[in-house]
Amino acid sequence: QVQLVESGGGLVQAGGSLRLSCAASGRTVSSVAMGWFRQAPGKEREFVAAITWTGGGTYYADSVKGRFTISRDNAKNTVYLQMNSLKPDDTAVYYCAADMNFSAVVRGMSEYWGQGTQVTVSS
């Protein structure tokens, strides 16, 4: 069992930055792939970024490539999402996800999900 708790969301102006954190607890945390998804009002949940359990591999949605960076600190059981050059279209609830399988994380089929943190970007 893995528990995920997101933090770091908030209100920011367009062009600004935020860093989201996802604290993980439970067994085998350091061996799970992790990722971020987001869901805007009236839209389906969409993939944002994922990282392998070693941190050596990352994958991004085209919409955030070059602006967002995913990273992890296995000593702290935490994954981060650094978001720069934020746009109003980035407004959404951001969810952390974890699974033993990296592909499952990317495809939105993770076994474990957090409760989400709201990110609002004003124009």
Polypeptide structure, described:
This protein is mainly β and 123 residues long. Helix content is 4%, strand content 51%. The protein has one helix at 102-106, and strands spanning 2-7, 10-13, 18-26, 33-39, 46-51, 58-60, 68-73, 78-83, 92-99, 112-113, 117-122. The strands form two sheets. Strands 2, 4, 5, 6, 9, 10 and 11 form a seven-stranded mixed sheet that branches. Strands 1-3-8-7 form a four-stranded antiparallel sheet, with no helix packed on it. It is globular.
Q: Main β-sheet: number of strands, strand sense, barrel status?
A: 7 strands, mixed
Sheet/helix structural class: mainly beta
Strand content: over 45%
pLDDT below 50 for ≥5 consecutive residues: which ranges?
A: none
Write out key terms for the chains shown:
globular; single chain; 7-stranded mixed β-sheet; mainly beta; 123 residues; 11 strands
Short account of what is shown:
With 123 residues, this protein is mainly β. It contains one helix and eleven strands. The chain is globular and about 40 Å long.
Topology of this protein?
Elements: E1 2-7, E2 10-13, E3 18-26, E4 33-39, E5 46-51, E6 58-60, E7 68-73, E8 78-83, E9 92-99, H1 102-106, E10 112-113, E11 117-122
Parallel strand pairs: 2-11
Antiparallel strand pairs: 1-3, 3-8, 4-5, 4-9, 5-6, 7-8, 9-10, 9-11
